[in-house]
Design brief:
The protein is an alpha+beta fold. Helix content is 36%, strand content 23%.
């Protein structure tokens, strides 16, 4: 939900106001993806990324690494979330085989549901 807050901040609004528009939240199961794992600082350093590249507002270095991963036919990239909580996986759907990505659940992301997820009252 930190990513929702970052998107709202970038749009100069609040998450609640932004979510007045229609949004869908999908839970996607990923199976046996060959990913570039950038969870550790050593792994990020090996590809030329610094913590500021992950957590800052300039996405160009991360995008360059993502483009290189795509070019090398990697199926995805696993990184710490820019908001500082959790992980983000970017899966290149065109690089996956049938069944590797499966939408297991979808729901409307409303201001109420955002609040539940943000504050840990999962239903």
């Amino acid at each position: 939900m930190v990513e929702v807050e970052r998107a709202a901040q970038a749009a100069s609004t609040t998450p609640e106001k932004m979510l007045e528009a229609s949004y869908r939240l999908h839970t996607i199961e990923a199976t046996d993806l060959a990913v570039l794992d950038l969870i550790t600082s050593d792994a990020r350093e090996a590809v030329g990324l610094e913590d500021d590249d992950i957590y800052g507002d300039d996405w160009s270095a991360c995008q360059a690494v993502g483009h290189a991963a795509w070019f090398l036919h990697v199926q995805g990239v696993l990184v710490p979330a820019a908001g500082g909580i959790g992980l983000v996986i970017t899966a290149y759907e065109q690089r996956t085989r049938p069944g590797q990505l499966h939408v297991s659940h979808s729901e409307d992301l409303t201001p109420t549901r955002y609040g539940e997820l943000r504050h840990g009252t999962l239903n």
